[in-house]
Design a protein that fits this description.
Distance between the termini: 5 Å
Largest sheet: 6 strands, mixed
CATH architecture of the largest domain: 3-Layer(bba) Sandwich
Structural class: alpha/beta
CATH topology of the largest domain: FAD/NAD(P)-binding domain
């Protein structure tokens, strides 16, 4: 998705790895995209749902139930309620960031120097954003690697005009009257950004009813001569009718 924002991927549809029809045919499943699971009755082994497109309600029985509501982006509490702060988890997030970058392209601050954060700063610069600042609380980029392996990455970022702030993090974030965001870092540095993109890490999504904007996946096994019909229902966090590359 960052490479779509940077213009290297031109076709939005190419981000969809597996269309619904192919997924259903290949794995013998029924996929109800954009469907809200409203309740689960364990005694009767049945999942109740509501289709978001038209409000039609229905239910499906199950033999085994897997709740896989995925993950959600972590947003530090300092950004709670602050406009102009974005995360990149799905294609709707991508579209919101694209609209914001198109309207405000002077200075973007990216929080987190992991894979998503690095891809974001690369593509923001490729898109022509004049100033990109990368804030990382660890003393290196790509904390999953040994420090000596990341030095060339850091040099490349600097060479391409990215302002890298290592061993630092945001302590306060305040909206400004001109719709910019004022950030104070732990080091005392002050930043003023048109928008902030948080690419730190993700948290497991907590399964609570209703499960909003998800997809209901019904897997039906092929039956052998001695098998009874099998079915399992699952609630997976997919807002698109398919899987998106990240």
């Amino acid at each position: 998705m960052p490479y779509y924002l940077g213009g290297k991927i031109k076709d939005r549809q190419s981000l969809i790895v597996t269309p619904v029809e192919r997924l259903e045919q290949r794995f013998i499943v029924d996929l109800h995209a954009s469907t809200e699971v409203t309740r689960i009755e364990r005694q009767e082994q049945r999942v109740y749902y509501r289709r978001l497109s038209d409000g039609v309600e229905g239910s499906e029985p199950y033999d085994k139930l897997i709740i896989s509501t995925g993950s959600k982006p972590f947003v530090p509490k300092e950004f709670n309620g602050v406009p102009g702060v974005f995360t990149l988890r799905n294609m709707r997030d991508m579209e919101r960031i694209e609209a914001a970058v198109s309207a405000h392209s002077e200075h973007v601050v990216v929080i987190g120097a992991g894979f998503i954060g690095l891809e974001m700063v690369e593509n923001l610069r490729a898109r022509g954003v004049k100033k990109v600042t990368l804030v990382e609380m660890m003393p290196q980029v790509l904390g999953v690697l040994d420090a000596e392996m990341t030095r060339d990455v850091l040099n490349e970022l600097t060479k391409n005009g990215v302002d890298v702030r290592l061993s630092d993090h945001v302590t306060t974030a305040q909206p400004l009257p001109d719709q910019r965001v004022a950030l104070t870092l732990n080091s005392g540095a002050q930043l003023s950004a048109d928008l902030v993109i948080v690419g730190a890490f993700t948290l497991h999504a907590v399964a609570r009813y209703p499960f909003p904007h998800v997809s209901l996946l019904i897997a039906r096994r092929r039956r052998g001569p001695r098998e009874r019909p099998g079915r399992c229902g699952g609630s997976g966090a997919g807002r698109e009718a398919g899987s998106a590359r990240e």
